[in-house]
Amino acid sequence: MLVEISVYFLGTGSTSFSEEVAEVVRALEERGFDPQVGPMGTVVEVEDIEEALEAIRTAHDEAVKHADRIILTVRIDERLDREVTAEGKVESVRRRLQEE
């Protein structure tokens, strides 16, 4: 199962969130997750919905330390027919691009 978490920090006085996002990523790492940072969100691979909720709670609990208001969006990709990884999804697109 893949979980993509995006956090938007409001009221920080800056349009840049990289410092705050780094703290969220660090918190996920400290909890044993292997976050993959992208330009618009961070992806975490988890085993089940309980672990997904743990990652979401970790991100939330860290994010609220850094702003008076946050917007946290979550997308979950769960395939039941086979295992899915973030790298596998990216590689699938790369292969198709090479076919053209």
Note down, in words, how this protein is organized.
The protein is of the alpha+beta class and 100 residues long. It has a single domain (2-99), classed as Alpha-Beta Plaits (2-Layer Sandwich), CATH 3.30.70. 42% of the residues lie in helices and 24% in strands. The chain contains 3 helices and 4 strands. It has a 4-stranded antiparallel β-sheet. Helix 1 packs across helix 2 (49-63). The radius of gyration is 15 Å and the shape is globular. It starts with a strand and ends with a helix.
Q: Which structural category fits the helices and strands?
A: alpha+beta
The CATH architecture is: 2-Layer Sandwich
Return residue spans where pLDDT drops below 50 for at least 5 consecutive residues: none
Q: Whole-number radius of gyration?
A: 15 Å
Strand proportion: 15-25%
Oligomeric status of the shown chains? single chain
What separation lies between the terminal Cα atoms? 30 Å
Supply the number of helical segments. Answer: 3
- Mean pLDDT, nearest integer? 95
Largest sheet, order of strands side by side?
A: 2-3-1-4
Query: Per CATH, what is the topology?
Result: Alpha-Beta Plaits
Number of domains: 1
Q: Can you count the beta strands?
A: 4
At the first level of CATH, the class is Alpha Beta
* Shape by Cα distribution: globular
Q: Biggest β-sheet, characterized?
A: 4 strands, antiparallel
Can you write the helix and strand succession as a string?
EHEEHEH
Question: What keyword list fits this structure?
Answer:
100 residues; alpha+beta; Alpha-Beta Plaits; 42% helix
